Amino acid sequence: MQAMLIDRYGKQPLRQAEVPVPDIGAQEVLVEIHAASVNPIDFKIRDGKVKLLLQFEMPLILGNDFAGVVRAVGSEVRRFKVGDAVYGRPRKSHIGTFAEWMAVHEDDIAPKPTNLSFEQAASLPLVGLTAYQAFHDLMHLQAGQKVLIHAGAGGVGTFAIQLAKSMGVFVATTASEAGAALVQSLGADQVINYRHENFAQKLHDYDAVLDTLGGETLLQSFAVLKPGGMVVSVSGIPDARFARENQLGSLKTLLLRLASAKITRQARRHQAEYRFLFMQPSGTQLRQISALVEAGKIVPVIDRTFALADAQQALDYMESGRAKGKVVIKVR
Known about the structure:
It comes from Paralysiella testudinis. Keywords: Oxidoreductase. The protein is globular and about 55 Å long. It is built from twelve helices and 16 strands. Helix 12 links the parallel strand 15 (302-307) and strand 16 (326-330). It has two domains: 2-124 and 300-330, Alpha-Beta Complex (Quinone Oxidoreductase, Chain A, domain 1); 126-276, Rossmann fold (3-Layer(aba) Sandwich), CATH 3.40.50.720. Strands 3, 5, 6, 7, 8, 15 and 16 form a seven-stranded mixed sheet that branches. It has a six-stranded parallel sheet with strand order 11-10-9-12-13-14, sandwiched between helices. The protein is an alpha/beta fold. The relative contact order is 0.16.
């Protein structure tokens, strides 16, 4: 099969190669991939920025979510059969969706939403699970509460705005002039033009913030919260709590405690809570997302689509920060 891979960490171009079709385990299915999507985690993995949390063997096929058709099932698979159209986010130890085939655990996939194409469906798993787990599992958002979503026109942001509105939550978001109309069309109640306005001075008494940018934006986000509020970040630095919960060991716990000290102090200063989100695959939650999509409450937002052979161009475009919504790779 054809796949796009890296041979070492660093900013070298993806290499197209012929590799064997993977074998499947007893609880896995073999998926003929029709489409995959590009996410910031792809170039972070390529650059070695998550080596502290994830270890991979080289060569490594990149890609973290997909949509396709089941072509074989393991002996213990009970929820899927050959011919099923599915979508999913494989577990972190088993990535590789920039390819024509992949083996994936049945717990990590769900039936593809019936009203979506494969390209549309492939755009949803990673960003959908990220927003879902942030809002439901960590923030426990309720109708009537207020959330700030950074970079609302991005991949996570376009999904998160729609999910929050489906939950009855008031949504503020940051965007440029180019993204303002898009986020408003998705339901954002208040749009902060980050080029001309300071969100930390404009917003107050928010229940939660979803941070997708990290850095100074993350540090300033605590100022918009009411006491007891929470900042959930997918781009910040993991803290000691995250290290303990994920059993990373005493050395990594110490290193992350030191690295995240500034964030921890800022959270304490504002009587707020900080959580780093390392999203987990979940076929069960994808089924909940499918129900929202099929009910018309969430619509995929796709900026551009590339061929598999042009995966490097897709990665470059995503890394440029110009994409509004998702970047998709059409495999078949």
